Amino acid sequence: MAECHPVGFQWVMEAKARGARIFHVDPRFTRTSALADRYLPIRAGSDIVLLGALINHVLQNGLDFREYVLAYTNAATIVSADFRDTEDLDGLFSGWDPETATYDPRSWAYAGTDEQPQGEHVEGGRRHAEAAGPESYGAGGAGAHPSPRTDPTLDHPRCVYQILKRHFARYTPELVERLCGIPSAAFAELAEAVTANSGRERTTAWVYSVGWTQHTVGAQYIRTASILQLLLGNMGRPGGGIMALRGHASIQGSTDIPTLFNILPGYLAMPHAHRHDDLNHYLELEGGETGFWGNRRSYLVSLLKAWWGEAATEDNDYCFGHLPRMTGDHGHYTTVMGQIDGTVKGYFVIGENPAVGSSGGRAQRLGLANLDWLVVRDLTLVETATFWRDGPELETGEMRTEDIGTEVFFLPAASHVEKEGTFTNTQRLLQWREKALDPPGDCRSDLWFYYHLGKLVRRRLSDDEIDRPVRELTWDYPEHGAHREPSAEAVLREINGVGPDGRALSSSTQLRADGSTACGCWIYCGVYADEVNQAARRRPRGEQDFVAPEWGWAWPANRRILYNRASADPEGRPWSERKAYVWWDAERGEWTGHDVPDCEIGKPPDYLPPEGARAQDALAGTDPFIMQSDGKGWLYAPSGMADGPMPAHYEPHESPVANILYGQRANPARRTFDRPESPYNRPGPLFPHVLTTYRLTEHHTAGGMSRPLAYLAELQPELFCEMDPRLAARLGLGNGDWATIVTSRTVLEARVLVTGRMRPLRVEGRVIHQIGLPYHWGWGGGGLVTGDVVNDLMPLVLDPNVYIQEGKAMTCDVRPGRRPRGRAMLDLLETYRHG
Amino acid sequence: MAERMGFFTDTSVCIGCKACEVACKEWNQLPDDGFVFEATSYDNTGMLGASTWRHVAFIEQSRPVRVEGDEGSVDRWLMSSDVCKHCTHAACLDVCPTGALFRTEFDTVVVQSDICNGCGYCVPACPYGVIDRREGDGRAWKCTMCYDRQLGGLEPACAKACPTDSIQFGPLDELRERAEERVARLRADGHEEARLYGESPSDGVGGAGAFFLLLDEPEVYGLPPDPVVTTRDLPAMWRWAGAAALSMAGAVALAFLRGGALPNHQASVRGGTR
């Protein structure tokens, strides 16, 4: 966190100054470790073992926050008798179909639900595997029975609590030592600290970054942490939770108002061409009827009204038919394969540099070279725009400029200080940004680009029916200045939404399904309440209380802690004075406290839903997790995950050790590509080391924004690899020497930084060396400093839930000296692929 | 004169982000220092110089082996942002023949680039090796504690940019008080090695305007353990020199008065030493 989020890390230091103990778990001793109270080295890719052992420690010793767990989680819920665990099936859950390599999750369901809700629950993992489903539910989770059978004694052998206990029983401190390389004494200290610092009076927070997500089990890493936090009562409470540090500014915003193929704004599922006939059919299949997702018709109809305005009427399904449709996986890597295969002809690359920044860079560049046209918008001429004249494949002879037919359009972009708009950062906080200066020359904002491109496209439309969706779009923002910049505030106001009177709405509960409201993103409703840009508020912290509600605006409804109903006990009283946050005021008959309560303000804690209630009315007064159909925190996910209802440890796709827990070595549902562009390292002695990649404070992602800046580039001027002194000695490498790193994808060279901050780990009785590579360099990109492309080393293998590549744990070989050039490099690669 | 302003750099909370280095260069429009990989931990800056007025040192330390396979493992990574000390007794200022170096109303030491003639006397005079001449320019440059920003009521760029308040700027007396409390707190928490460096008015430079909280010996950070203003002995030396000159003049006069030549032993002495 200190490495990649130094500004956010000031609050960790603040917490430390107030007595918080900081543990840091990482394959490398980083700048974060330097400031932590304890550092635990871990083998990259083994985190579920560590977290699972913490869960086991809690369950075996009865350290869970029982009152919280009983009231707020699904611990007591009885699971279907058809369910089989990985403990029973040697690493597979029930429902595995080896033919399609996907799970049918029906057997994972809650018991006693004869009339199972339709949709995801029934159709299951196949569609997830096809179209990265779970993300489309955001925090909501897929449909589950609203009031399943439970056993509050937690004794029933098929209740979630007991299933969990059996599932994690073999995740012991000894296993942690064997697989993670963490000594059991260090584990004991961590377990003691985490459990002692949880409960009524205290809370523990977990913070993770991309190091948890870029794995073939990435989504399950987060699930494991969620289970632990729910068991310890650390969700929805001040000082608790799991904080996801996103990759860079407004990545949170880019999932809320998505740049993803499978969701619409506000985590509504993108319609599927073959599964959804019309609006009703779509709503029937996507999501549960209970909990706040029960209002999804209002959310979607309001979105359609925002996009198609007058043209959207009840008679035409509010233009639901105008929405684009998925036909399968249109994710990044599948799209690249489509380019190579010639099915994808054109490509917009906006503020991204996939030729350097994406996994398997060679495949990326092969794809780019096979396009008809390519549009790149960036601050500098990044490698993605110049691959055809200077890419590494020209040197090896794999590509020739004269053979590349791609027509490349480079359009210079305005930087974030040269345009106005919002950043949405990790805690869902929207902050308005003023323009500091005009962009130079032809540089323009993204808003300008899309708006005027849209106008140009619309000018060329015919009366043909096929052009109707774009013809009927609302596309009329106020413009200002010489370049006719569209008003970003008008866009924010459209996202906020308006009511029948044309005034800005103040809450998503005002949204209606009858077409009388329009809202571009239901979770952002309220950001323009009272016709005021709430995201632009900057009241200093000294002038308001510690929650600081008037600093920016957080979705939803300016809530700073999600699910904060859980900060009070079932009767609505704070768990402790020390941790009081929101509570029920019986006299006034409403919820109150420091934050905006995350429940209906007038719903008493003793409210019980009547039979047949729907949406939020179906949730009891004690249900804090209001986006879930049963209002509970899910220790066990009966649906919604493509690779199992509980996390299980699987080795990375490429790992130097076997999986001693199960016969199933790696995540069975992981997405692989059986293609020559993406060969995988064969297990065995050829690739003996673990390779992990990361960023440095001094650079930004693929370097497009830092390599051209002298003041940053001089601080880390060259690609280097970090290795422990023992391995360096064995290879005869000294500090500052050159080393060659090899995977079956490519060969690259880096300067060597021999450092005791890398530690050889004893894993399964043998010593494992980990190699660390920061990935900021490329061959050009307007950079003052250049270097080989680290992401070229990575395998194309993906998490099955969200299709994120496994960039944080793979195998490699290291050789002393610089890499061979040209044809000789390919020859060396061949010996590793086939030799 | 206004209150004396200073820096307190608390290295115990430095995260080595180098925001101070970048903010300093950005505000003062300094040139880059070249793009050289130094292979010294994460430090590719090396040292303070004409174009580097903040420098973050990275020191990797190992302690005795506790776990098998753990030999040589680093378990402490010290980071510290170094800067001009703005000494109470500043030798650079003492030796400057043109008056380019002067003491400001904030009691800081600043070099005026439009007056500096590049003689370079200040460079060896600095006991910390801070001030330096810029190649191709010839003039001497160093931290001004953002004199221009201070005149505008702003804190220096490095302190402004520091995310963890490792670099604190303010009236020196307040900073010294705060630093004492911080050291006491760290020691109470078991960090016996915590100490202040440069805060004492009784040290060899009369106390630094920029002082530090360190977690190890100053030498570990590349700082001189007992810096002394290089011009400290100048008055005495002048006195000695003056006395010597007088006695020499007296002797010469005496010799002439006696009318004889001084015996020349030099050749035989030289020969003897060979």
Automatic annotation (TrEMBL), chain B:
Source organism: Nonomuraea rhodomycinica
Entry keywords, A to Z: 4Fe-4S, Iron, Iron-sulfur, Membrane, Metal-binding, Repeat, Transmembrane, Transmembrane helix
Gene3D superfamilies tied to this protein: 3.30.70.20
Cell compartment(s), UniProt: Cell envelope
GO BP field: cellular respiration; formate oxidation
Keyword Nucleotide-binding among UniProt keywords: no
CC per GO annotation: cell envelope
Source lineage: Bacteria, Bacillati, Actinomycetota, Actinomycetes, Streptosporangiales
Residues at which [4Fe-4S] cluster 4 binds: C96, C116, C119, C122
Required co-factors: [4Fe-4S] cluster
Domain 4Fe-4S ferredoxin-type: 5-33, 75-106, 107-136
Domain of life of the native organism: Bacteria
Keyword Cell membrane: no
Name used for this protein in its record: 4Fe-4S dicluster domain-containing protein
Binding site for [4Fe-4S] cluster 1: C14, C17, C20, C162
Binding site for [4Fe-4S] cluster 2: C24, C143, C146, C158
Location, primary (coarse class): other
Name of a matching Pfam family: Fer4_4
TM ranges: 237-257
Any GO MF annotation of the entry: metal ion binding
Cofactor binding, per record: Binds 4 [4Fe-4S] clusters per subunit.
